[in-house]
Structures are given as C-alpha cells and as structure tokens.
Write a structure and sequence with these properties.
- With 257 residues, the chain is an alpha/beta fold.
- It has a single domain, classed as Alpha-Beta Barrel (TIM Barrel), CATH 3.20.20.
- It is built from 10 helices and 8 strands.
- Strands 2, 3, 4, 7 and 8 form a 5-stranded parallel sheet that branches.
- Strand 5, helix 6 and strand 6 form a beta-alpha-beta unit.
- The longest helix has 25 residues.
- The termini are far apart.
C-alpha cells in the first residue's frame, strides 16, 4: 500500500513538473514585425524604390512599370511627398504600395523617441493627405533601427518594418548594367529588392531587370502581399541522407529561364 502511494505521489510530481514546459511550447510565437525577405511557396518577389517621389525620374519609372504590368512598392520621403503630392497620388492610383521612409532621411537610430515619432507622423500625414490613407509599412533610412524603436514604430503607428535582402548599391551610381547584374544575381523567391528612383542609372536599369526576372518566371507583388505569404521555416532533423552536399535552398528554388 505504501509503495502504491509513493508511486502515485512521484507520478503526480512528474506531471506537474512537465506542465510549464508543455504550456510554454504550446504558446504562440509573438507576431513578426520586421522583414528582410519572406519564405514563400512560389517565385514571388517585391521590387521596392526609396527616397522619392522625384519630379523627373519617378514618372519615367512609372511608365516602365505600367508597360510591363508589374507591381512595386515605394518608400517615400515626407518632404518629397509634400513637394510632389500628385506623383504619390499617381503611384497609389496605379496600384503600387506606399510606405513611410521618414521625413528627411536621418539615421533614426540617432534620434530620441520624440524625434522618431515626429519623423514618422509628419510623413504619415503627408502621405495620407496625398493618397487618402496612411501606409501600413515603413523602411528606416540606412535600413536599421534599434529593437526598442521597432517596437515603438509598430505599436504606435501599426507599421511593419521592411528591410531588404537584395542591395545593388545603386546609390553609388555604378551604372545601369552593374545595377542590373547585381539584382539579377541576388534575387530569389521571397526577395525584397532595394533600389532608388532618384537615380537615373537605376531607372535605366529597370527594363533589363524586370524583363529578365519575368522571363525567369518571377512574379512581382507588393511588399504587403509578399509578407502576407510568409511561412515559418520548419527545421528538419538531421539524417544520414543529409550528409551528402547539395545545392543551396536559394539556388535550387530560383526559377530558371
């Protein structure tokens, strides 16, 4: 009898000890607020342009995009939106997504919370005045924010923070052919491509970039559409079959001509 009682007590203690771990493992992961790319089923990519609107170059770019019927996302500078609201409106009316890229392109990591809020709010106000609604996404100038700043931006403005995984360094003006070759070499399914519609070389490179990516089977979507497709990466247990070298996931998943 004593043996049975002792066994029951030990079993109860074991069950209680396991409960917190089980509950913790069952807890859902916090929602993702920042993206540099997306894990998607299919050849979907997002083409993005920063720092506009530019009064001369952005309309040229819009004509290139419209001719090819591809989607894109524009991260706009607030003071440029204020100066050229008609171009921002044209972008939105054509179905392109608009994002917040700060008021005048400072390094947000060097700002106080108050100044960070001001950069976001002034740009949000300018975009809303131009297109009729606030954006759902933002991109920090230079692509960086402290974790606490990301939480602030997401909590107070509802923005998802968008970085990138393809960077042709077009702001250094290496020439259209170099910009195109870098984008084409780095793009894979789920990529977020960084570029700037304030540089003539970038706009000149776009026909080659878009036509080649379309020929490879890629499909252009807005950033919000891309991250809505994002799926968690399932880690598979190592096995003996995995000891042989294989092609990288990005290379094997990329559509070919």
């Amino acid at each position: 009898m004593k043996t049975r009682l002792l066994f029951a007590l030990l079993l109860s203690a074991r069950v209680l000890a396991q409960q917190p771990a089980a509950e913790a493992s069952a807890s859902p992961a916090p929602p993702r607020i920042s993206y540099g790319s997306a894990h998607v089923d299919g050849p979907y990519i997002a083409l993005t342009f920063d720092d506009g609107p530019h009064p001369r170059l952005t309309p040229k770019l819009l004509a290139i995009l419209a001719q090819r019927h591809v989607k894109a996302t524009f991260f706009l500078i607030g003071e440029n939106v204020q100066a050229h609201p008609e171009i921002a409106k044209q972008e939105a009316e054509a179905g392109y997504e608009i994002g917040n890229h700060s008021w005048d392109h400072p390094d947000l990591k060097h700002l106080s919370d108050e100044k960070l809020r001001s950069q976001m709010q002034r740009t949000d106000d300018a975009i809303k005045a131009a297109i009729g609604h606030s954006p759902a996404i933002m991109r920090p100038p230079y692509g960086d924010l402290y974790p606490a700043q990301r939480k602030l931006v997401n909590k107070e403005f509802g923005y998802k923070i968008i970085i990138w995984d393809v960077d042709p360094n077009d702001w250094k003006d290496p020439g259209p052919s170099v910009v195109a070759s870098r984008v084409l070499a780095e793009t894979r399914p789920g990529s977020i491509i960084l570029s700037h519609d304030i540089h003539a070389g970038t706009v000149a490179a776009m026909p080659q970039i878009i036509d080649t990516l379309l020929a490879r089977g890629f499909k252009f979507v807005t950033v919000s559409e891309l991250i809505a497709m994002d799926k968690p990466v399932v880690k598979k247990a190592a096995s003996a079959q995995q000891t042989q070298p294989s092609a990288s996931p990005a290379a094997s998943a990329t559509p070919t001509p």
